[in-house]
Design goal:
alpha/beta, 8-stranded mixed β-sheet, Rossmann fold
C-alpha cells in the first residue's frame, strides 16, 4: 500500500479508487473539510449524502467546489429534535451507508448551551453526533465504517463525566473543546466495540491544523496570538514553525481512514496524517508531534461516556444492531 503522510491530499489518497456503488453520509458539508470530503468522495464515484444546518449555504459551497449535486439533509446538531427528525428521515428512506463521516463541529465557543441545555461544544460535537449515528446505526452496512473527526485538541482535557456542562467548573473554551474532542475518540472506541461483530469498524481522526470556518467563534486576532505562542514553543524545542495544511490535505485522513485503510487497521484507534497514531502517552507532546492521550482510548472510559451520554439525551441504544433505535 502506498505510504501517505501529512501533505497527502484527498485526490492523492483516493487515486485509482472507484467508489461506484458506495453510499456515504458526511455531516457538516456547508464549509471547509466537509465540502472537500464530499467533493472527493463524489469525484471517485460515491453517492454522497450531506448534512448541514443551513442547506442554502451548503448548496452554494458544494456548487462552488464542483461537488453538486448531492442529497442534503437538514441537521442542527445543537438541537436533538432536529437530529432525531433527520434520523427518522434517513431511516424511513431505508437505504444503507457504507461509510459515515462525522465531520461537523464547533470550536472555542463562548460559554453557552444547546437547545437541550448542554454545554455548546460537548452538546454539538459529541451528543448531537451520538444520537444521530446511533439512531441510524442499522443503516450502516455490514463491513461499513464510521469516522469521527477529533483533534489534537483532545490533549487539553479528558471528558468530565461529573460536570459535563460546566455547572461547577469554571468555563474555559479550550478545555471545553478538548472535552468534546476526547468524547469523539471515546465514542468511536465504544461504537467499534459494539459493532465490529458485524464488520462495522469505527475510528477517530485528527485532520491537522487547517484554516477553516472552525475558528469563527474566536475573537479577532486570537488565532494569530495562539499561533505565535505555538511557534515560540516550537522554536524553544528547535522545531520548525507551525505550517497549516490545505483543506484537501486536512480532509485526506478522513477519506484514508474511511475507504483506503483496512477496518482492522483503524478500528478503535486514533489516526493522523493518514496513519494510525501509535504514540499513546501521558508525556510531553508538542503541537507538531504525533501522540494521543491514553484517556482518549481507554475502553472503560469509553463505556462510561456512552452510559453518561445515554443518560443526558434520555435515550438508550442497544448493542444489538437491529434494535439500535432508542425509544
Amino acid at each position: 500500500m502506498t505510504a501517505f503522510g501529512a501533505k497527502s491530499t484527498t485526490d492523492e489518497v483516493l487515486a485509482g479508487i472507484d467508489l461506484s456503488g458506495k453510499r456515504v453520509l458526511v455531516t457538516g458539508v456547508s464549509a471547509g473539510l466537509g465540502v472537500e470530503t464530499a467533493r472527493a468522495l463524489k469525484a471517485h464515484g460515491a453517492e454522497v449524502v450531506g448534512t448541514a444546518r443551513d442547506l442554502g449555504k451548503a448548496g452554494r459551497a458544494l456548487r462552488e467546489a464542483g461537488a453538486w449535486p448531492i442529497e442534503l439533509v437538514e441537521v442542527d446538531l445543537a438541537n436533538l429534535k432536529s437530529v432525531r427528525a433527520a434520523a427518522d428521515q434517513l431511516n424511513a428512506d431505508g437505504r444503507s451507508f457504507d461509510l459515515v463521516i462525522a465531520n461537523a463541529g464547533v470550536m472555542r465557543t463562548p460559554f453557552g448551551h444547546t437547545t437541550d441545555g448542554f454545554e455548546t461544544q460537548f452538546g454539538t460535537n459529541h451528543l448531537g453526533h451520538f444520537v444521530l449515528i446511533n439512531r441510524i446505526a442499522p443503516l450502516i452496512a455490514d463491513g461499513g465504517r464510521l469516522v469521527n473527526l477529533s483533534s489534537a485538541g483532545h490533549r487539553y482535557s479528558d471528558v468530565d463525566l461529573e460536570d459535563p456542562n460546566f455547572e461547577r467548573t469554571p468555563y474555559d473554551p479550550m478545555i471545553a473543546y478538548g472535552r468534546s474532542k476526547t468524547a469523539n475518540v471515546l465514542f468511536a472506541v465504544e461504537f467499534d466495540r459494539r459493532h465490529k461483530g458485524r464488520g462495522v469498524r469505527a475510528t477517530a481522526v485528527h485532520p491537522g491544523g487547517i484554516r477553516t470556518e472552525l475558528d469563527r467563534h474566536m475573537k479577532p486576532g486570537e488565532l494569530d496570538e495562539l499561533v505565535a505562542k505555538i511557534d515560540a514553543d516550537l522554536a524553544s524545542r528547535g522545531e520548525p514553525p507551525l505550517e497549516f495544511k490545505t483543506i484537501p490535505q486536512g480532509a485526506a485522513t478522513s477519506v484514508w481512514a474511511g475507504v483506503v485503510a483496512s477496518g482492522s487497521e483503524v478500528g478503535g484507534h486514533y489516526c493522523a496524517d493518514c496513519h494510525v497514531v501509535t504514540n499513546v502517552t501521558d508525556g510531553e507532546l508538542s503541537v507538531l508531534s504525533d501522540g494521543v492521550r491514553p484517556y482518549a482510548l481507554d475502553p472503560e472510559r469509553a463505556k462510561s461516556l456512552w452510559a453518561k451520554s445515554e443518560e443526558m439525551v434520555g435515550e438508550r441504544f442497544s448493542t444489538d444492531a437491529d434494535a439500535l433505535i432508542g425509544a
